[in-house]
Amino acid sequence: TSSSTSSSSSSSTSTSSSTSTSVSTSSSTSSSTSSSQNDVCYKDVIFVLDNSGSIGVAHFGLAQSFVLDLIAALDFSGSNVHAGAMLFNSQPTLLSLFSEDKATLLSAVQGYTYPASNNAGTATGLAINFLVDTFLQPSSGYRGEGALVYFITDGMTQESPSVLADAVNNLHAIPNVRVVSIGITTAVDEAELSLIATNKHFLFTVNSFLDLTPEFEGLVLESACTSTATSTTTTTTTTTTTTTT
């Protein structure tokens, strides 16, 4: 299953006693013509979250909650899923190696506190090398049957292009590893995110941390499974209207 997303919102306020606010989100998604029984879902899942100084405490809290929601949505019971998590800025930080216990992983991610004074930069290539060396090895519990990586950032690397390119090539050289790039804010470099993602269908961008909504989470989670059947493209639109008098 592949998906791409774009979000827009609009609001209108009249001068009369009635106020109406409408938020519309549309997305183009590729959905399989097969049933869910034919979907093959990734069992090894890794979350890579940017915690560089450009994010700030409040925005990091939103990104952290987004990751917690994605973890909470994974089915650990009886599906043989295990997942891990790491942070990165100018240096990578391990939060949890692969765990089959959802509560343990949630606690590891939630237990991190973003420092109020944070001037760290962004070294994406170093983070990707750490990902490969730490997670995608048999000694770390990687089972070699494929992995899903959620790579979440608000900016771009401060390394040379060759450092990032070499790291990405090493990552993509590992068979059956799907990388989903998620860029938050307009400060991201979409070309860089596209390089990191497995392909353009697994590149997501939103304009703001406030756009990390449940609807967006749903689109991102669709990338956890890949269909064995031919896929077709559909377009869905969700509109929520609230009227107060």
What does this structure look like?
The chain has 245 residues and is of the alpha/beta class. Helix content is 26%, strand content 33%. It has 6 helices and 12 strands. The protein has helices at residues 57-73, 102-110, 124-134, 161-172, 190-196, 214-221; strands spanning 3-5, 12-13, 19-32, 39-41, 44-50, 82-88, 92-99, 147-153, 177-184, 203-206, 225-227, 231-244. The strands form 3 sheets. Strands 7-6-5-8-9-10 form a 6-stranded mixed sheet, with helices on both faces. Strands 1, 2, 3 and 12 form a 4-stranded antiparallel sheet that branches. Strand 6 and strand 7 (92-99) form a beta hairpin. Helix 1 runs antiparallel to helix 2 and helix 3 (124-134) runs parallel beside helix 4. It is globular and about 40 Å long. The relative contact order is 0.24. Mean pLDDT is 81; it is low at 1-38 and 228-245.
Q: What's the count of strands?
A: 12
Measure the end-to-end span.
43 Å
With strands numbered from the N-terminus, the spatial order across the biggest sheet is 7-6-5-8-9-10
| Large-scale geometry | globular
The helix tally amounts to 6
Helix percent reads: 25-40%
Average pLDDT for all residues: 81
Spell the H/E element sequence: EEEEEHEEHHEHEHEHEE
**Which structural class should the secondary elements be placed in?**
alpha/beta
Q: Main β-sheet, in a few words?
A: 6 strands, mixed
Computed over alpha carbons, the radius of gyration is 19 Å
